[in-house]
């Protein structure tokens, strides 16, 4: 009998939610995703120390402006780690745009182009990279521009149906709707500590988005993210992609019970009315969704704090 991770791989493309190379090699996912929080953890590992030093040295060769050098070093570090990950997987890696640009469309486009240029300088084709952008209205607009320039995007911190609809309408390649963080919010609001997986609001959110996309034939890929337990993963088996932490991939590996497909493009349930959202409608729906508004803002702040911590690791050698 195959374990549940292997069974899952037969119905869903599995993506590693980590920057840990050893874990990626162990579980053999198709793709991998990174973000500032994961990169901050990764650079604490011994195998990444040379990349940290190389990023510092490379940045020092750029124009002598400490602020710019710091950002050059941070970008080069992200790309160098992405390059190492790509040597261990057959598919693609997601590299994230600075969360401090989440409300600036043009700056997001410029940063994405620069990251792709750095990858190309490392001998990595843009077809192996997804640019990860926060799903604000401005971020979605930036992704629309980039997609037209053949730079494919992964829209992250998706908590609401409005974000998912806007991303699909914009022609975004892939979205990462979060599961665990939605559940966290509902636990905090209700005071409950336990909830049946079938009633999990994060699972229900991804299921609704998946079914809506399939009913209306959107090509945008749905990649469930941010899992708290394997029950959530099991309830989304059959989703286009799922990005999973090493800890939960190990839990799936340790379980050999049968895994039942939960999502199926041929069985999408009750028909959903197709929506079209302009900016004002998008912002209004976000305003009406307290969970999505709070978790989106919290996620941006969290990624920003970890980006700043990452930059602190690079600071001393650059400014000395």
Structural class based on helices, strands and sheet pairing: alpha/beta
Rg calculated over all Cα atoms = 19 Å
What is the CATH top level name?
Alpha Beta
Approximately how much beta-strand content do the residues carry? 5-15%
Shape: globular
Distance between the termini: 58 Å
The succession of helices and strands, N to C, reads HEHEHHHEHEHEHEHHEHEHHH
CATH architectural label:
Alpha-Beta Barrel
- Overall pLDDT: 93
CATH H-tier superfamily:
Aldolase class I
Topology, number of strands: 8
CATH fold descriptor:
TIM Barrel
Number of folding domains?
1
- Low confidence ranges: none
Give the biggest sheet: 8 strands, parallel, barrel
Overall helicity: 40-55%
Number of helices in the DSSP assignment: 14
Strand line-up in the sheet with most strands: 1-2-3-4-5-6-7-8
Topology of this protein?
Blueprint (H helix, E strand, L loop, with lengths): L3 H6 L3 E5 L3 H7 L3 E3 L2 H7 L6 H12 L5 H21 L6 E4 L8 H17 L7 E6 L2 H12 L4 E6 L2 H9 L4 E4 L2 H11 L10 H15 L5 E4 L5 H6 L5 E4 L1 H8 L25 H10 L1 H30 L1
